[in-house]
# Entry
Amino acid sequence: MELLAITLVCVFGLLFHLYNLLITKPRKLQLALKKQGIVGPQPKFLLGNILEMKKSYEAAKKIVSNGDVVDSHNCGATILPFFDQWHRQYGEVFMFSLGNTQIVHVTQPEMVREITTCTSLDLGKPTYQVKERGSLLGNGILTSNGPFWAHQRKILAPELYMDKVKGMINLVQDSALTLLNSWNNEIEAQGGIADIKIDPDLRRFSGDVISKACFGSNFSKGEEIFYKLRALQEASSRRVMSTGIPGIRYIPSKNNRETWALEKEIKALILKIVKEKRRSEAAPSDQKDLLQMVLEGATINMNTQNAIDNFIVDNCKNIYLAGYETTAVAATWCLMLLAANPIWQQRVRDEVVQICKSRIPDADMIRQMKQLTMVINESLRLYPPVAVISREALKEMKFGEISVPKGVNLWTIVTTLHTDPKIWGNDSYKFNPERFANGIRGACEFPHVYMPFGVGPRVCLGQNLAIVELKILISLILTKFCLSISPKYVHSPALNLVIEPGHGELIKMSNPVEEIVGESTMENKQKALNHNDFSSSSTTDDSRRPIDKKKCHLFNRHKPVHSILGGGKLTGDYWFVLKMDGSVADILLWRKKISGGLLAGATVIWFLFECIGYHLLTLICHSLIVSLAILFFWSNLSLFINKSFVELPKIELPEELWMRLVLLLRNQCTSAVGIFREVASGNDLKKFLYAIFSLWIVSIVGRWFSFLTLVYLITVMLLTVPFLYEKYGDQVDTYGEMAIKELRKQYSQVDEKVLQKLPIPFIKDSKQE
Ligand code: HEM
# Structure
């Protein structure tokens, strides 16, 4: 009897709770809003307006366009079509429901300003997000509220300030070069022009950057986390349209089971990295990565190990998710817009070439890129990765004339605000970066409605890093490739937590020369020729002029000397040697001050050993004696004068540089062995004779000089011949061609009179060929 009574009380209690949750509470909130004149579409029991939204979304998705018609960019009409319709019907402020969650839609500029810049902790991230995306985001910085959020922001923010981001530029450059290298290989493999699906590659790029920024030297392990997070994100976005339906996240459906398994695996992977990091803490490093900051923050105000673990795991996931997908889609849309607008593409390319002058863009250079900034701003206006900024009133609050009851959500639709013709003018759906010529203030009447990175206290923490990534990547891509929209591209923006191309992003990419030759004017062709190679930038300096393909060049070369010497070359497996290859070319062509120093150093060494008769070991010992004596006396003298000990700087040889050197040496040795094999294989008589002749010449020259003099002469030649050849290439080419013709004549005479008469069969074959 007692048991029956308890069961009945429990059942009635549950029913009452459900009635309150599903009917009374939403009705109360709707009534409170209605009283203030806020209306909206009629919600259905349990689902609210979800079915209507789903139907409208599916209908809009069917209207897709191909690459030829990407000239109007109303992506809001495809991804959030119901808002357009409700906006027209109910005005700038209206309400709707997602399940039992009540939402007020706001696009009225003044009210938007009040909401987004509100600093009260009573306005926070919607609580339904924590429930719905708990497995993806946990209670990290993106979803948490109140003092816990403020604590997380305090820990993470300083790590993403501009001065820290400047320290990450190297890793952004490296990741960008890896991407360019892979595209270059693909284009070369397909004969100079290729349709490339850029979005997965761009995700890999931004994931790579975040992995390195987050996990430092452990970044390779971050890759596995990255793939699992992507899968978790896909599983979570499949649930977007069931947002707000109570209890649905507890049902062990296939999707939910997949989500739970991934969540567990990701947690285990992150904690494994943390464990390894703690173990290696015996040798603390000055360079703190983001994970290090999270680890230090986790120990403050946390009582249990589980709370510490959750803090670490949630924030790692949050940074990853906040940073990689958003930046990747931002880059994707920006490249799509540049591919569809060749004039802007060329404008930005010209600017980059002029600023970078054959160097890889750095912090200072990207700061000067005004045209690129305008293009990125316009791209983020038309395709903001984050479509909705949402908040929840955690207590009753007032915005303008409207009193917002506790529990009501406020949604600001970024796509609507970014394309409203009343704010941006009649061309609001067109790509026109010129509108940002005078910055954001000059572009629209209400600058605060431009919010690709949000505004106010919860503004994006990673915007500096994102902009640096975008600028470095896009500037490098434009100087290396020419972009156009592939005919196979289907323009269909889709909402999967971020706004992304629904069918992927296909861009036709080619070496700039080939592309423009095919479809544009001679003037463009000449311009593109100037941009043929990243390292051979277009400048007024005659020594860097582009190669004229019609003219005969020595050894039939069709590339500038700098490029032949390896400058900006993007092939080969060891992409990280690239930067050094570029530097070698710069040094040989006297584009770096070090060239003079090298020549002078080589001359001094040669003079000491060869002319004065100094010995290597003696020189090393004498140098060490002098430097040790100077430092010893200086340390003691400074102690005497300043009364403080002068500590000598700790010198650590950079591991990366040594790796590069060793790899470069290994590559050169491998290619030398390859050439030896090829010549020795007996297939090419001409090559064989060239090799024998060259070695014979070297053996004679070797007899005339000592080894050191020979090395010195080679150094002098390396530092003078390419430089002089680049400067006086035309004259050298003319005389060189004459000399080669003469040599060929002599060779054919020898061939006819001697070689053909020898009874060796392959000589005759080679002649026929
Ligand atoms: C183009 C790239 C990016 C875009 C468009 C973007 C956009 C945004 C937006 C709109 C918000 C604010 C959401 C709101 O107010 O509710 C935000 C927050 C945030 N973003 Fe980004 N983001 C980008 C890149 C990054 C990167 C690279 C990182 C980290 C490395 C990052 C870390 C964060 C964090 C931690 C927050 C939460 C701030 C808080 O709630 O206090 N974002 N982002």
In short: The chain has a mean pLDDT of 81. The radius of gyration is 33 Å.
